[in-house]
Hints:
- This protein is an alpha+beta fold.
- Helices cover 30% and strands 11% of the residues.
- It is globular and about 70 Å long.
Amino acid sequence: GDGRGAAGQADLQRKQEPRQLPARGDPVQRPRRRAGVCGHGEGHCIGPLGARFGRRDLGREAGTFKLQRRQLGGEVLAYVGSADYYSTTATKQFQPQFDVAADGWRQPGSAFKPFNYVTGINDKTMTAATMFMDVATNFGSAAKPYIPVDDDHLERGPVTLTGALQFSMNIPAVKALYYNGIAHVFDMAQKFGVRFQSNQPTAGLSLTLGTEETHPLDVTEAYATMADGGRHIGYTHILAIRDAHGHHLVPPYPPPAGNQAVSPQPAQALEALSPPGQQHAQRLGLAIDGDQQRQ
Length: 295
């Protein structure tokens, strides 16, 4: 044998078996540390198709667009909806004059996870230091199991929300959605600017893994909302239309006041949890992952 004995083999089997999720009424594990809040003041949000949205499906159709934050009115600074608009060769995988950014339905993947976590932080049920167990868990039933795994198929045990977000872990994200509620996070994402094909969520708990299709441009708009302290203002391609004499043919575009999707603090906290945001927070002496400051 391997030297473990019957007791050791039984213990190993228990560790390998997926763990059942606690009852919905059970509280989320609370950290004993406090999270600070910080925003790092980037001037724009960039959405690279192909880097986040269905890399295997987009192929040459991948484009890039750039949104300015609210201070300048949500203007689109650059927009490429197709990799080669003037191409004369069209295939099933690549239609040159199809606008992938605005018209393509794509799965955002892990780019959706921040909207799940910001929901919990805004509801005051989670903080940047909330602990999740990154262990295999059956979120379904014995007859129809749903056991998500992380990308590297490893289990890390207790992790903070900060670590789960920064390393894009799947199991903690699904657990956070279980506590937040699928419909609640679905509605919150729409307040940020995300549009879905259906008015109701259809992906179940895999919603947080970005399986519900949306437009890449909408997700970039939602990230701009996050960067602007949770205020959603949308975007515009045109600021003004003038004739040859400089006279306005239509009224100029006025930057809208926007609608607050979440309080500024949760949105700023999520922004600070990104690696650039952490560096900025450290310069300001703020603790954002609970490792530096105790209650």
